[in-house]
Structure formats: C-alpha cells, structure tokens
Design goal:
Length: 495
C-alpha cells in the first residue's frame, strides 16, 4: 500500500512554528532551497523575475523564522527606500540632514522599542522606585542586523558614497537576502546591490568554496558547538556555585569554542549559500583566537559589526583625529554601544566596556613601547605569550557575555579564583574527557593555517562530485552520531 498524504500536516509545515523556527540546519530549509535553486536557475536570464523570486523566497524564509515580524522588514525597506531617494534628490543640505536624522531615529526607535523598552523600564524602576510593569514585547529575529544595514544605506547616500537604487525590489532584496537576514553578516549596500544585476555565473571554484564554507559551518555549529553546549557549558553556567573552579574554568574555555563555532559556523553557511547564488560576501571571521593583541582580535571577530561600528560610530565621533584622550573616549563609547547592541543587559555593557578599556590600554602601551615591541615581535616566545594573554582576556570577557546575570558572572569568577583545585583533575577528566577532547579539537581546527583550507578546496575541484558526496555523507553520519534530541538555537538568533 502507498502511504496516505496528510494534507493538514503538509499545510502545517508551511506556516510559522515558534517552537521550530526555520534555520539552515532545518530539514524544511533543504526542500525550500532545492525548489528555489531550480526556479532561480530557470529564471537566471530574467533579472526582474529572478530578483522578485529572491525577494519572495527571502520574505517567506523570514516568515518561517520569525512569524509576522516579516512585516517589519517590509515596512523598514519601504521607509528607507523612500527616504534615501529623497535624500539623494534633495538640493538642500538642511533637508538632507533632516531626512537622515529621521531615518536614523525611525530605525533606532524601532530597535529601542522592541529590544530596550523593558530594560529602560527596569532601570527607571530601580532608580526612581517606580512600579511600571514590563511590556509584553517579543524581540523580532534579526532586527539588530537589518537595522544597521538600513542606517548604513541612508548614511552612505547622504555622504554621496552611493547612488540609491530606483527599483524597490532591489532594495528589498538587499535588506531581506535570506542567507544573511537572520544573523548577518551585516553587508553594505555599495558592496551588495551592484551584484544583483550581475549575470548568474558559478565557476567550479565558486561551487567548491561555497561547499567548503557550508560543510565546515554545519560541522562547527551542529557537532562541535552543540555538543559542548549541551553536555557541559549550559549546566555549568546555569549554576556555577555547584561546581568546582576547575569545572568553571573549562566551561569558560568551552564557551569560547562554542560561541566561535556557533556564530562563525552560521556565517560560513550564509556566505557559502550566497556564493552558490552568485553573491560574494566578505568573511565575517578570520581566526580571531590567533590574535596577538586585542586590536587584532577586533579585526578578526565579527568583522562586519566591527567595521560598521568603526565607520558609522567611531570615526564620526572623531576617531583618533582629536587627540589621545578623545580617541580613548571614542573607543570606550564605541565598544559600550557595541556591547549594548548585543542585548539589553548590564552584562553586555560590561562586556563592551571591558573591551573598550582593553583597546585603549593596548593603544597607550603600544605607543609607549613601540620600538621594544617591534623588536620582540620577531620572536616566537613573545608571540606565544601575546596570544595567550589576548585569548585569556577574551575568555574572561565571555563570562559576562554568557552569564544570565551579573550575580552569575561574579559567582563564576569567584569559583575560578578561589576554588580552583588541580588535584581534582583525574576525577574531572573521568567525568568530562569527551567534552575536553571536543574543546581541544575545536581549538585545534581554529589554528589550522588558512593555506591548508585553500589546498583542500583546490583538491575538491579535482575530485569532483564523488568527493563532494563522500564528504557530505561523512558529515551526515558524524552528525547522526553526535545529534541530541534537544535543539540548540544559534546564539546570535537572540540579537
């Protein structure tokens, strides 16, 4: 007998499910992407049709990921499309500034309402002893990312760096492009929009690069990050007072691997899918834990956000053009804002503030010891200790990023500082050896030189479809071995 077709179950798959949002690792996405890529290829020579198909698919993807919040993306796109064109056409500088301020206010106003209203209410209640109840607000998925893209677009138009598009579907595609809509990377219109009109052409190298990015991203997210999260990090951070300093210390190192593999993994998938569709998006991570100083770390970590903060906040504040004290103040303000961008919590503000202080101290120290450090940087021992110091500082800051409250963060630090007992190592290894091996494996992969990745990609092009099939099958089998019944949503989905 043939299996019966359950229409209700099929229709349920097509609508948003808050308990199962659509992500790249979702089975439904595979079917959606398969149908999309066939239609996209058939329409590849019709620019208007393929752009509209892309827009509709992106909006549907976002609907499946966040429900009716997709309307916010459409409203934001309409508003900034009209405002940017009005800025471009206006001959009056005052009017241009007024329109720009209106655009920024509108975008930040929406972001503030959904993301920071209850945080502001909490602060006012604490300071003035008000009794205002929190608002029943859900945070729209991806709002922090597409808000920054909207702002950068109108600012670039105002500065005369970019001519706004005349076709609304092109702006809507820029904003809603599904590979990066939910969790970035944050792309610039001047880098992305011209590619919309390029002829659709994928080389063997493009396909191989995209494949390596997608497979490596899935491996980092679904296997390394999820395994460490579920089997160790989450329950240590949930109640650090119940665990020894040794367990807490390795939870911090574990989380450093988790957040890197989680976010860079998702970014890799997004960039890989984009490359398969004919779009080049710059890398969002460049081996950040290989950094020898904190400045270098921010050149390698979440690059799209770092560049945005530099170009649209740090430099407009004055950058390094108004003296050293002002430079350090600008750095602190930029990083505090970057911390707050991640979430409405004092923990994120502290996290950003610590990085701002570290950046200022490093610049001050580097200026004072430039000749000495330039000499010592040639030696491996100096590089080793610089890397070790930078990595451990970043890990220390991750405590505030991960902890659900300031109290939990302080408890974690207290356990590490006052209850760190290496005599417990044998029992610790016995209980957690599989997790420790996975943490070491994740860090080990991170330190593989980039040239080997390039060689691997070239090798794939020679092997052809058989090689792709074998690697993907190995990924599926490995995932099946490590897969847990509990779903681990990407960390940056909350931002």
């Amino acid at each position: 007998m043939f299996p019966t077709f359950d229409l209700d179950k099929f229709l349920h798959q097509l609508v948003y499910d808050e308990n199962n949002p659509l992500l790249f690792n979702n089975g439904f996405f595979v079917y959606l992407f398969f149908i999309f890529i066939i239609l996209y290829y058939l329409l590849r020579n019709n620019l208007t049709a393929r752009t509209n198909l892309f827009c509709l698919t992106s909006l549907y993807f976002f609907y499946k990921a966040s429900g009716y919040f997709v309307v916010l993306v459409i409203i934001s796109a309409i508003a900034d499309f009209l405002i940017s064109n009005a800025i471009y056409k206006s001959k009056s500088l005052i009017k241009k500034k007024a329109l720009l301020i209106f655009s920024i206010t509108l975008n930040l106003g929406l972001l503030f309402y959904f993301k920071y209203s209850n945080f502001a209410i909490q602060i006012l209640n604490d300071i003035f002893l008000f009794q205002v109840h929190p608002l029943n607000i859900l945070l729209p998925v991806g709002i922090s990312f597409y808000t920054f893209e909207n702002i950068s677009y109108t600012v670039d138009v105002y500065r005369g760096e970019f001519v706004p598009v005349k076709k609304f579907n092109e702006y809507l595609l820029f904003l809603s492009f599904f590979p990066k809509l939910v969790m970035g990377p944050i792309v610039r219109a001047k880098d992305f929009i011209p590619q919309i009109t390029f002829p659709f052409h994928i080389t063997k190298e493009d396909f191989a690069n995209g494949f390596v990015l997608i497979v490596s991203g899935l491996f980092k997210k679904l296997i390394i990050s999820d395994y460490i999260t579920l089997n160790y990090v989450n329950y240590i951070f949930d109640a650090p007072e119940r665990y020894s300093g040794l367990e807490c210390l390795f939870a911090v190192y574990g989380y450093a691997v988790v957040i890197y593999c989680d976010f860079s993994g998702y970014s890799n998938i997004a960039i890989g899918i984009a490359q398969w569709l004919g779009f080049k998006i710059p890398p969002n991570f460049l081996y950040p834990y290989q950094s020898l100083d904190i400045t270098d770390f921010w050149r390698r970590w979440h690059i799209s956000l770092s560049n945005w903060l530099r170009d649209y906040l740090y430099i407009p504040l004055g950058g390094n053009r108004k003296g050293k004290f002002r430079q350090y103040l600008n750095l602190a303000a930029t990083m505090l804002f970057g911390g707050l961008w991640h979430g409405a919590s004092f923990n994120f503000i502290i996290w950003g503030g610590l990085h701002g202080i570290a950046l200022s101290i490093y610049k001050l120290w580097h200026q004072a010891t430039k000749k000495i450090t330039n000499h010592w940087q040639k030696f491996g021992i100096y590089q080793f200790f610089s890397l070790l110091l930078t990595f451990n500082f970043v890990c220390f800051c991750w405590i505030f990023f991960k902890a659900s409250s300031l109290t939990e963060a302080v408890t974690m630090i207290n356990q590490i500082c006052y209850h760190l007992n290496f005599s417990l190592w044998n029992r610790f290894w016995e209980n957690y050896h599989s997790v420790i091996i996975m943490i070491a494996f994740g860090l080990g992969l991170h330190f593989i030189p980039a040239r080997y990745n390039h060689r691997f990609t070239l090798g794939l092009q020679r092997i052809g479809l058989v090689g792709y099939a074998i690697i993907f099958l190995l990924l599926v089998l490995t995932y099946g071995y490590f897969k847990s019944s509990d779903q681990v949503l990407p960390i940056y989905l909350q931002f």
